[in-house]
Amino acid sequence: MARTIQQISFPAPMRPSLKRVAAYARVSSGKDAMLHSLSAQVSYYSALIQKHTGWLYCGVYADEAFTGTKDSRDGFQSLLAECRAGNIDMVITKSISRFARNTVTLLETVRELKALGVDVYFEEQNIHTMSADGELMMTILASYAQEESRSASENQKWRIRRGFERGELVNLRFLFGYKIEKGRVTVDPEKAAVVREVFRRALEGESLTSLAIDLNRRGFTGVLGGKWNSMRIREMLSNEKYLGNALLQKQYRNNHLEKKEIPNRGELPQYYAEGTHEAIIDQAAFDAAQELLAGITENSPIKRPRRRSAFTSMITCTVCGRNYKRCTGGKRHFWNCPTAVQTDLPSCGTSQIPEKLLYDLAAQVLGLAQFDEGVFLERVKGIDALPDKTLVFHFKDGSTAERHWEHISRAKSWTPEMKEIARQRALAQRRGEKWQEP
């Protein structure tokens, strides 16, 4: 019997897939030393990930001058978006306090990533969140980090309040008419002349709106680059700092987590310090300006409080960067860029959007049968309005949706029923009869 020999070929072993790894770094100050530290962290993590044979480098996400108690960090949100898209398997960060100092935010984020199969490794504490005891240790250490943040915040508040008690200009960084460098306040001659001009013209009877329009036309901007309006002119005329004095602790931070500035209505003591810096306006002009403002307030008509819409501060013009405002024409409402309707500014070329159309488009992108304000505010971060009648909806989870819209002519929007009602109404008017809607 002939011998049969057959070569057996084994399939080539599959190469293990690389683990996709990214890193996150953060510093809470924009000072040069901190920025140098951030650069060093980015370089360190880039080298660490790329030299590991089993890892695929997916970038280093970083934030500068953002506190870890807030989750509105751009780099942090970009990292989460990539994780949700399934593009990252593991995240490396220096410590729990770098990732988040808010215990609730930390646990919610880590649990979400854990459900997505994304491991977070904290180098300093040597904790992997995917491990059995990782969450327990992380919860304990995160509580310490949050308490450390609260303690640091209280120490900072104590320092600032002691400065107020001594009459020091603590945390004064910007003021039109002055140059402020390293705590030293000096008069800016060019802008100080504008301040004196505004006081003089206001006392001569010129309206605040007229003054704002003139400053914008002449190319003067606010201290942070914004446009002038009547409210900003009023704030200038009522600011005691132009006398060389300072009312200290006008606002305060609500807590160490949200850090919102709240007007001080008597919750904390205020201090009026005189002669803290060089004056621009004399006492007589300032007192006359306060009498003028009091008269304007007393004689102004009482306005009803305006209802805040779900779209307020949500729609941004991509041409000029301003937020759309609600306009009314007859019984219909529209949203329009202020630049497009103000005659003293060049038009940005955008179109007004019917409010009903906005409701319909928002419901579409949210997958709802009809618009729900609560769902909209919970899920939508903002809307970009493009000149080509395109709206880009930005969601809080990092995703986007685009919708193109067109104005519908009145003739096309009428149904046969609507046309018949209009015909019957016209016939009744011709016969002199009183028309009643069916």
Q: Give a short account of the largest sheet.
A: 5 strands, mixed
Task: Determine the number of helices (DSSP H or I, runs of at least 4 residues).
Answer: 14
CATH topology descriptor of the largest domain: Hect, E3 ligase catalytic domain fold
Distance between the termini: 103 Å
Domains, number: 4
Provide a short characterization of the protein structure.
The protein is an alpha/beta fold and 438 residues long.
What does this structure look like?
This protein is an alpha/beta fold and 438 residues long. The chain has 4 domains: 19-149, Rossmann fold, CATH 3.40.50; 166-299, Hect, E3 ligase catalytic domain fold (Alpha-Beta Complex); 315-407, no CATH class; 409-438, no CATH class. The chain is 39% helix and 19% strand. It has 14 helices and 18 strands. The chain has helices at residues 32-50, 74-84, 96-99, 103-115, 134-165, 189-203, 208-217, 230-237, 283-299, 338-341, 355-366, 373-379, 410-413, 416-431; strands at 19-27, 55-64, 90-93, 119-122, 127-128, 178-181, 184-187, 246-248, 251-253, 261-263, 271-273, 315-317, 325-329, 332-336, 353-354, 380-386, 390-395, 400-404. The protein has a 5-stranded mixed sheet, sandwiched between helices. Strand 16 and strand 17 (390-395) form a beta hairpin. Helix 6 (189-203) packs across helix 9 (283-299) and helix 7 packs across helix 8 (230-237). The longest helix has 32 residues, at 134-165. The radius of gyration is 31 Å and the shape is flat. Mean pLDDT is 77; it is low at 409-413.
